[in-house]
Amino acid sequence: MAETFLSPVIDKLVDLQAEQVSLLRGVHREVKSLRDELEIIQPYLIDAEAKLSKGEVSDATQVWLRQMREVADRIEDVADEYFYYLAERRCRERGFIGSLRKVGDCIKTLKSRHDMAYEISDIKQSLREIKERGASYGLRPFEQGSSSTATNVDAPRVDPRLGSLFIEEDELVGIDSLSKEVMMSLVDGPSTRSVISLVGEGGIGKTTIAKKVFNDEVVRQLFECFAWITVSQSYNMEKVLKSMIKQICQAKEEPNGIIEELIETLRRHSETKRYMFVFDDVWKIDFWEVMKHALPVKNKRARIIITTRNTTIANDVKDTPYDHVQELKAWSLELAWKLFCKRAFRFEFEGCCPQELVELSCKIVSKCQGLPLAIAAVAGLLSKKEKTQLEWQKVLDNLNYEFNRNPQLSSVPKILSFSYHDLPYHLKSCILYFGIFPEDYLVLDNKLCKLWIAEDFIVKSRTDDKTLEQVAEEYLSELIHRNLVSFEIEYGVFRMCRVHDLIRDIILTRVGELCYCQIVDENKLRFKGKSRRLSIYGTTKGVLNVVGDDSKIRSIFLFNIDELTESFIVNVFEKFKLLKVLEFEGAPLDRLPKEIGNLFNLKYLNLGCTTVKMVPKSIGKLRNLQTLNLFQSSVQELPTEIKKLQNLRHLEVEPTRDVADYSLDVDRGVVIHKGIGSLEELQTLMSVRAYPSTVDLVKELQRLKKLKYLGIYELTAEIGKTLGVSISKMKQLEGLILRAINEVDIIDLKCISSPPCFLRYLQLCCRLQQMPDWISKLQNLQGLDLHFSKFTNEPFQYIKDLPNLVYVGMHQTYDGEELHFEEGSFKKLKQLILRQLGGLKVMKIDRGALPLLEKLELDSFPLMKEMPSDIQHLTNLKSLNIFRMPREFVDGLNPNREDGSISHYCKIQHVPFIRYW
User: Any idea where the NB-ARC domain is (predicted)?
Assistant: First the structure.
């Protein structure tokens, strides 16, 4: 059966039926009857939603759908409240005192049975009436297989690795030539400030070109400071100015001050520097009228790029003869065809269109009108379809229908709308989640997956043993593969996701129609109606008065909050007892009230980047909690009650760092008490302070068989031996961080007899006598950090042949005089960071070593006198950072040495970007 918004409700009733022993007498029968009613009405609902996607429904049918959603919400409420009742009853009945209370509880039990039975009976009556009205509106049971959007939860899912196959910016055909034109304007322009305006309709590629130029390492050599600002329609000038100052000063905190003061600060910091600023997605000329006062015209060779859809704005920005407008045109049919084939046939036919599909494909490409976003979206959709004329004709017919239905819209919104409607229900719920976030918001991929799981969007397959997290990753990868979600890698580790503003427009339209989420922006409601989710931008003052008494709310999100009032927190905990998600990351919150324990239904709690110092003992009452994020908070210790959270899957705790260096004094981890081993569902445990914990606590970690990410800080030699045994039993581990209590004590890790074979990232910050042999067996390892090891023997022999290693960082790792990179070693390594190798004098790089290396950093080698000549063998090197090296070393790289001595610049002249410090 295809999925609808009733599917998770039916699943919840199945879970409730499983509580046969605990269900009150008579309630079990009512629950089964209700489930039967829903399964009967579900085919009618599928028919209604299919007609809705085609615009074939009347106003009455839309009301019918809204009433069905309201009934689904009522059922979810009844089930959640009953689960709460069961949990409370079980707690009361434990022990002798509990048995004495049973008599007194009989009256409450009778009341609970009566209330729940009455509510279910009333819901069933509402369902029968809604079903009858649906028949009168012409709705019929949907027949499986009659729509391309019908999907089964057990159907084969996309490989999660497909996310990595999303087209990178420099893969986009047609972008390179335009990017080069913009780069030439930056390089060959005047000696004063100049502005380049990229103008064109949405989806033409303005942001892609600007970002490609902004990130180009050749371009970045020409400037001293950079800032990227996404302006959008709802910009705040004060926040824009603060962000710019923070970026160009590379400050941790945003500056204070009113707009006039911020403008003066920005002028002061930028007037003597060669800067490049990008203002992306400018909608109003008022923005530039203020901003130009902060950017002096006489600044030497300063460059500004503006992207906009408005030609008038682009022309009005031209204040000097040196400013110019670059108008982006629709792609030629030839370029459009190349991109289409690259996306639609990426996994088959060697990227070429089969002859029998050429005619239909040409008609589909012509619908895109040369706009790359539309081409990529429809090609991504078709890549999931069978490569038959019948299936592609269906897509063309549906596209024609979409175009005829909305003739006033341009091709991009039409195709994006069609791409949304083509999604199966479970992916629609997931893509709509991006409507909760502010415009151009970047969200971490694993954070998004945890939120989807907490919302019950993720349905575990009945045919395999994949975790909910793995299924969620597959959902995200499919959205990426369909070109509806894009991602960018930050720091080489994280995958940050976002949606294009045109896709977000489609999403927000559906969010409003479905009452999916209520958005309150500076105390203004975005949509009418009540919703399960509340997203608040800017301030919480008076928000609950604006929202009203909406007890339906299950998820609350805070973004860019200036002030978090005490009354807001108190009211949230009192009014919304059935909350599932609290996303308060970055909010100005310093205290977590004990009333948090009343939110029995809470599954996701994020207090990262707040100043919360203590977690109340009442946290132990949150038996449904799956994710607790206290990363970069002020929490130093967790209460013993944490061990009661039997459903906890992710515990991420790390105190705020005071300084950004590699010292072991920086990260101290968090104290966790005995009993952590009882949390057998844990997949993430970051970051535990080993000292002054006991060996017994570390032994408990052996019970955490599902752990994927583990961080242990303040490790001692004694505890290290016990920890090694525990790690050997963690077969699912993918990320491991071990940091010692000091840089002196030797930690013995040879006791890890059976290393986790799935390990992808390893960080060892401790003194080691020698490199553990088992590291050479980590065939899936992608990233390795080794700090303070102080080996006397060269460590590379253990890791040079690891087949998937792309990143290596070393800090005080090796005290020897010579490093040798042998021919054929490190075949996939892209980034190598070497810091504070105090004894190093010579570095040898054989031809054929490090063939894919792109970034190399050399930092603090006091005994190395000159750049190794072998660096010329690194033909793929794009970036070379040279920090705190001896004066003789740096002077030797000067191409025009005044003393007449030999320059070694020829060794590195092939590297596009070189930075000295």
Answer: 180-346
